[in-house]
Design goal:
This protein is mostly beta strands. It contains seven helices and 37 strands.
Length: about 725
């Protein structure tokens, strides 16, 4: 921890509190949620009229992020969402209503849209969230529940629609932000923005680094983001972005129970094999809208993403060179007659991806000294050399009807996804494997507004989760080609809820849902496969019940309470019988059986945050984060305690953490700013931050002890 810096931040905050100018004003304007328009549905609609569960992360909530580097900070008050950051940097696991909990890396089945540009590949997989600088985000819309009829395989669990800051009102302005904290954490952000006539712009650069709270957990990242909004006429508007991300993160891996003895320990393999992930990616794209008249308009999105990826492990060093272009077109027709409003849209999404992949066998270096060096030992043994080509096309139609207080939205979509793998190490007649998927999905929802304080909605939707590249390319019946036994997971969800807004003091939403999923995924292990041991299969079916509640209430004039609660009852209701996944001669772990809880899904999650404004500029917040116990393994033997208890322990105790933040906004002449101090896990509780059903038993990732962060922000 940078102790001196934190002391300076504290002195600065207290000095400004005692001697600062009385005319200091809040830098953020309060957002009226009943006036917020949701665009993640692909047809704009007021939040209060949206016929389905949705949450909005406002600038006020985003301003209370201590590090502004992780999705778990930004989405802390969103029910139904579980985010595990076991690496202290920006590598996270995200699930919505339990969808995506078994993803090895990235986000599977969750659509991610950044300033109108999708982050998901043709299979619906988003590799990470590194391109998002959370310190520059202005709003996040979170659609919870299957939205495949809107975004195909990238919307099976829900949508994260992320908007970043536009340019400021002055010709030239900007922000400088410096954060220091425990375990060597540092983030520097420089942002320049402005506007002139029909153009506003923003350019930002940030550098993040840290040692991590566990051994072999260091990370660093550089991000550049450029955004221009151009409105040359009342009919045409264009948003253009260019982003570049260079991110490095060591991987301390999970521990088994026998290895677990302190918070800092890394897996014994992590250091000598220098296990890490490295991403270097550039994205360029635009989103434009042209209004022919008040009756119809056209939207067009196009982008290209090119990146290099490297991951090292105790098995292999894997290299990927990836090109991922895409485009979308949507035509909107508006037919209004008196109180009746009809909106009809047609469109298509097209994506391509080409992955040039090869693997070299790893070698251990017992003499290696711990550092953030990217060097690792590799032999000249080529384990894989292949090309994976993917493409997808989805055509969709949407309809929105508004009659007074009644609103209805319906959508349907047809998706076709093609995957082809060419193994360069085999003869031409055996080198090529093809695996294709097709799916039709639909959704319909309705809402009725009895009053601003009581808006009820009901919704039925379908999800479609095709196997990701990672799952397809791990073939349990051969050393090359795709796992042709995999089929997409499909789901249907019924939900009912109510939301309301009362005098700008109270806003709430309560949603209940039932979701049935067929052909859920699981991970299993085979014997005798050398450098390739872990594979993926279809586990069977599951049934999920849940209640999601969010409340924001102004208890007193200067005291606000915010609560997000999730009740989740997720269980398997049938088991797969495919012999590829159950052959006792080769398969060391079996699919789950009826009655098992889905892994990594606590029955109760509760996040509570109370904010007290001591003055117009001085704020104090106290937060509580609670999760109940959860199951870890899908393998029945591990689940029911039939394996070595020194390695496998299925039930993980929950935790309850407390956090606090104090901040002061200052106004000195034309310069505005803020200084703050954040304490995470005040009581220094020992807890498990994340678990995964690892077939080797290396399932446990301990969480950090007490952490301190200090932030100084200057706007000009």
């Amino acid at each position: 921890m940078k102790t001196r810096v934190l002391i300076m931040v504290f002195v600065s905050c207290m000095g400004n509190l005692l001697f600062g100018q009385e005319n200091a004003t809040d830098s953020l304007k309060t957002v009226r949620l009943d006036e917020v328009v949701i665009s993640a549905n692909r047809v704009p609609i007021l939040l209060k009229n949206n016929p389905g569960s949705v949450s909005v992360v406002t600038p006020e909530v985003l301003s209370f992020m201590p590090k502004s580097v992780g999705a778990e900070e930004a989405l802390r008050l969103i029910p139904g969402v579980r985010i595990d950051n076991q690496h202290d940097g920006e590598r996270v696991h995200v699930s919505i209503r339990g969808q995506g909990i078994l993803t090895e890396r990235g986000l599977r089945g969750i659509g991610v849209i950044i300033d109108g540009i999708p982050a998901n590949d043709p299979s619906g997989f988003a590799p990470d969230l590194y391109d998002v600088d959370w310190g520059t985000v202005s709003k996040i819309e979170v659609l919870r529940g299957p939205s495949a009829s809107l975004y195909g395989g990238g919307g099976a669990a829900g949508i994260l629609n992320i908007s970043t800051n536009d340019g400021g009102s002055k010709p030239v302005g900007g922000e400088v932000n410096q954060i220091f904290g425990s375990n060597g954490f540092s983030k520097s952000l420089l942002q320049v923005d402005g506007s002139h006539n029909d153009i506003d712009y923003r350019v930002s650069y940030s550098r993040t680094s840290g040692d991590g709270y566990r051994d072999h957990q260091a990370f660093w990242g550089n991000k550049i983001y450029e955004k221009i909004n151009f409105k040359p006429s009342a009919k045409l508007s264009v948003t253009q972005i260019i982003s570049h991300t260079d991110y490095f993160q060591q991987n301390p891996e999970g521990l088994n129970i026998g290895q677990f003895d302190n918070l800092r320990q890394a897996n014994p393999d992590a250091n000598p094999f220098n296990e890490y992930q490295k991403t270097n990616r550039t994205t360029a794209g635009f989103h434009g809208k042209y209004k022919f008249s008040e009756f119809h308009d056209l939207e067009l999105t196009a982008y290209i993403r090119s990146w290099n990826y490297k991951e090292t492990s105790n098995k292999a060093a894997e290299y990927r060179n990836i090109t991922n272009p895409g485009t979308s077109i949507q035509y909107n027709l508006h037919l209004n007659s008196g109180k009746v409003k009809n909106d009809l849209s047609f469109g298509a999404d097209m994506k391509w991806q080409n992955i040039d992949l090869y693997k070299l066998q790893s070698a251990s270096n017992p003499q290696r000294q711990e550092s953030i060096s990217e060097t690792n030992l590799e032999t000249d043994s080529l384990l894989a050399n292949q090309i994976i080509s993917q493409k997808s096309i989805g055509v969709f139609a949407l309809y929105k009807l508004g009659i007074g207080k009644f609103n209805l939205i319906g959508s349907m979509r047809s998706d076709a996804m093609n995957n082809e793998l060419t193994n360069k190490m085999l003869a031409l007649d055996t080198a090529r494997t093809v695996k294709n998927f097709r799916k039709f999905s639909a959704r319909i929802g309705a809402s009725y507004s009895f009053s601003n304080s009581a808006n009820v909605f009901i919704d039925w939707s379908e999800g479609f989760t095709p196997p990701s590249t990672e799952e397809l390319a791990s073939n349990p019946v051969g050393y090359s080609g795709f796992n042709t036994h995999l089929v997409p997971a499909t789901s249907d969800c019924k939900e009912i809820g109510i939301r309301g807004f009362v005098n700008e003091k109270l806003s709430y939403e309560i949603t209940g849902f039932i979701m049935n999923t067929e052909n859920d995924f699981f991970r299993f292990k085979q014997s005798g496969r050398g450098n390739q041991e872990v594979f993926y299969g279809n586990a069977g079916n599951s049934k999920r019940y849940g209640i999601e509640t969010s409340v924001s209430y102004e208890l007193l004039k200067n005291l606000t309470l915010q609560v997000a609660y999730t009740f989740a009852d997720y269980k398997y209701v049938s088991s797969v019988i495919d012999p590829v996944y159950t052959d006792p001669v080769y398969v060391l772990t079996s699919p789950p059986v009826t009655g098992q809880w889905l892994p990594n899904s606590p029955k109760h999650q509760l996040y509570t945050e109370i904010v007290y404004s001591l003055s117009k500029s001085f704020k104090f917040s106290l937060a509580s984060e609670y999760q109940s116990k959860w199951a870890i393994y899908t393998d029945p033997k591990a689940y029911y305690g039939e394996l070595d208890p020194s390695v496998y322990q299925n039930w993980q105790n929950g935790f309850n953490l407390f956090h606090a933040r104090i901040s002061y906004e200052l106004n000195i002449g034309k310069v505005k700013g803020e200084c703050s101090i954040f304490v995470r896990n005040i009581t220094a509780s020992k807890y498990m931050a994340f678990t995964e059903p690892d077939p080797d038993g290396n399932a446990y990732h301990p969480g950090p002890a007490r952490e301190f962060f200090g932030n100084i922000k200057i706007k000009f």
